[in-house]
């Protein structure tokens, strides 16, 4: 651990602070349980298309469970501090995108004292601050992207409107420029997958220039620190009104008319893409959204594939898109009786989770096994993505 000078230990908490701490502990435990449930259900899709009910081997599941327990144990030691410094009933404050990424940060050294894990506040150092700096997404864009006719926004001129907490880590959702030019969705760059970022930006621009009858988010800007016009921390997409992933609507009482329309629309989208030599890439129901007007949108053009939807040897090919599309259409054609069987077997509440690369909150019911085997041929549905 760091050898930095430490502040004095915290004073004994008040009764009110202890009560808040207990509430915080309960929240940590509840969130940990939700993460475990989401992990067992699959990280990405709200529909499990695997043939069996098992997802991963026992060793993988045990490892995941142990990591959650370890994280819960560590976070519990901060409960009193969190209750004091960030109580759940605190007044929300407006923050910019810059402040969201570069807000006040405290560092701690964890030690065992009297049999309990005890955090001690550290004095901030240049080395510690550099570690935080490395967590801020930044990526140098090539000239062909920098030369696009797309505006660049300063990170200090974007007001945060919403956050997305799952999958971790917590990340931004909607932002509004100052002065306002509408609501945008912020998508941070992933420095571990530069090829996927470049691919998506190129395809979004091409779709807009072709003016195809395909509903897809439009690229509305790049986000920068300072005056740079080559280094970006993310890009802004046009916002979709009240989006829901198609996976939410595969296990609910949706009319056959809507299902048939969405099935036909998804087929048209893929056909139009292929006619213009564009490969969707990660073809799956999670990458189709339904907006407030029941219109279907296609998203995520970063490429790759998701096991259970597209076979690895068909990664980023027209055949791969077709394979994913067929599974999407098959799920939309499920008879209503299957949903009734699932609903009668379902006794718990729906599990809600927010997904990452997209713009939506995904719901998943536990009991969909009565029909899922019909559409799977043995693929295991993990959210394993294999990108360049």
Care to describe what's here?
The structure is a single chain. With 388 residues, the chain is α+β, with helices and mostly antiparallel strands. It folds into three domains: 15-132, no CATH class; 137-238, Phosphorylase Kinase, domain 1, CATH 3.30.200; 244-375, Transferase(Phosphotransferase), domain 1. The protein has eleven helices and 17 strands. The strands form six sheets. A six-stranded mixed β-sheet has the order 4-10-12-9-8-5. Strand 14 (288-290) and strand 15 form a beta hairpin. The radius of gyration is 23 Å and the shape is globular.
Oligomer classification:
single chain
Structural class: alpha+beta
Q: What is the CATH architecture annotation of the largest domain?
A: Orthogonal Bundle
Biggest beta sheet attributes: 6 strands, mixed
Q: Kindly report the average pLDDT value.
A: 77
State the domain count: 3
Specify the helix fraction band: 25-40%
> What form results from the Cα inertia axes?
globular
The helix tally amounts to 11
Approximately how much beta-strand content do the residues carry?
Answer: 15-25%
- Reading the helices and strands in chain order gives HHHHEEHEHEEEEEEHEEEEHEEHHEEH
CATH topology of the largest domain, by name, is Transferase(Phosphotransferase), domain 1
Going across the major beta sheet, what is the strand order? Answer: 4-10-12-9-8-5
Q: In angstroms, what separates the terminal alpha carbons?
A: 35 Å
Radius of gyration: 23 Å
């Amino acid at each position: 651990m760091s050898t930095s000078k430490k502040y004095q230990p915290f004073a004994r908490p008040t009764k009110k602070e202890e009560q808040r701490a207990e509430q915080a502990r309960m929240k940590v435990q509840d969130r940990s349980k939700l993460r475990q449930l989401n992990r067992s259900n699959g990280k990405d899709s709200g529909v499990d298309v695997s043939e069996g009910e098992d997802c991963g081997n026992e060793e993988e599941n045990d490892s995941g469970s142990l990591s959650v327990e370890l994280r819960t144990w560590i976070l519990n030691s901060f409960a009193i501090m969190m209750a004091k410094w960030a109580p759940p009933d605190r007044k929300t404050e407006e923050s910019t995108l810059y402040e969201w990424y570069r807000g006040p940060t405290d560092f701690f050294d964890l030690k065992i004292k009297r049999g309990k894990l005890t955090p001690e506040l550290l004095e901030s150092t240049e080395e510690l601050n550099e570690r935080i700096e490395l967590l801020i997404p930044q990526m140098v864009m090539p000239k062909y992207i920098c030369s696009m006719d797309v505006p660049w926004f300063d990170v200090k001129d974007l007001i945060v409107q919403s956050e997305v907490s799952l999958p971790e880590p917590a990340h931004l959702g909607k932002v509004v420029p100052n002065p306002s030019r509408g609501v945008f969705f912020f998508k941070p760059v992933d420095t571990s997958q530069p090829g996927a970022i470049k691919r998506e930006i190129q395809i979004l621009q091409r779709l807009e220039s072709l003016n195809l009858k395909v509903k897809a988010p439009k690229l509305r800007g790049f986000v920068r620190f300072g005056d740079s016009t080559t280094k970006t921390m993310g890009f802004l997409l046009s916002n979709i009104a009240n989006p829901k992933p198609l996976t939410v609507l595969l296990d609910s009482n949706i009319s056959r008319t809507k299902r048939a329309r969405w099935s036909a629309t998804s087929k048209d989208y893929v056909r139009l893409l292929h006619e213009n030599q564009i490969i969707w890439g990660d073809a799956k129901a999670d990458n189709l959204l339904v907006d407030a007007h029941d219109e279907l949108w296609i998203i995520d053009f970063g490429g790759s594939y998701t096991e259970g939807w597209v076979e690895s040897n068909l990664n980023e090919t027209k055949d791969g898109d077709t394979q994913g599309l067929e599974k999407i259409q098959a799920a939309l054609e499920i008879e209503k009786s299957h949903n009734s069987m699932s609903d009668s077997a379902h006794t718990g509440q729906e599990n809600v989770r927010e997904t990452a690369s997209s713009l939506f909150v995904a719901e998943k019911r536990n009991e969909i096994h009565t029909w899922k085997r019909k559409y799977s041929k043995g693929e295991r549905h993990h959210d394993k993505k294999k990108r360049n």
